# Entry
Amino acid sequence: MKLEQSTPDVNWQRAFTFTIYGTSVLVASYFQLYFSYLGFSSSQVGYLYAVGPFISIFSNMFWSMASDRYRTTKKMMILLFAGQLGMGLLLSATSSFYAVFALITVFYFFYYPVFPLSDTMSIQTAQRHGKNFIVIRVFGSIGYAFFALSIGYVLGNVGISRTLLLAIIIAGACLLLATRLRDGVKTNGQKMEWRGLWNVLRQKEVLWFFAGVFCLALPYRMNEAFLTLTLKSMGASEGLIGWSLLAAALSEIPVFFLLSRFGERFKELPLLTLAALMFALRFFLMSIADHPGTVIAVQTLHSVTFGIYYVTAVRYITRIIPDEFRATGLALFTIVWSSAAGLVSGTFGGVLYEQTGRTTFYFIAAGLALVACAGFLARHLLGNAKIPGASMDSRKM
# Structure
């Protein structure tokens, strides 16, 4: 896979994809520490984490359907980061739980839709230039790795109280980069129609896929929400937490490249089954880990868990969802993977973690991953039904 001889809009898309994951690092791993710094309990942190996925159920659909309907992703991105910037400024000026709860709710309305829309634009840009989607998306992993390490050390030196200042700076940079993006063109020229979308969503293959995704997303989001608190309870510093996130992000990059070259040799459902099985192993090892160094080592399993899962899931959904519903289809995928699962894991995960402890918390997470593994395997053994009108361009994903 070659990265040279790229056109300007491909490079701007790569730069944008790189930068947006700085906010992802903050929201996924350091907002929880910031909320703890403000004096909130584990349960309150769980509620603040859960409200985002709840709001994103509506915000993902709203922004992605608007993108499909009006055929512009660039303008949506500009609005989203302008909103993040404004909410970040307001959040930095308050420490009351109820005020933070209200403001973070609005912040999440502008935060969550960025990622499915970014993937949509990356897919369109890659197809327009005859490239593989991964040559753009991999810059998200590189960006996540860079920000995971750098943010950890910055906050370790200036204090966790500066978390929102970093969020404001990164959102401002993303806003500027969004003005340089180029909207993609739908390949078949069709606008989204509600009846067609409903017909696609009723297909057994789509429903089965989303069910498996939800079962796997629950333990993944549980781990995401409480990984930093787990490390903190073991005595890890912000810098060491950054190394943990870096280990996960770097480990997925070679898997992305390998799947871009050889992934088409394997069917999607067996790959998803393998990823779910490795997730179960990862969470089981987390349940018995008792040292920050052990956790960092376990984090390298992100390569054969999320690395395999993400690329394969995007490839699968772009095959079973027609082109004119792409942004909405990826939004639905994000809602199941992030929003619905995050809502459950944040609300009940916080209580579970607080009442039962880390070992039971991760042991349950491993069991849920095994359920997803069984679901993907069962669907593969039952056979794949073809969905009329599904995109064949996904073979380039």
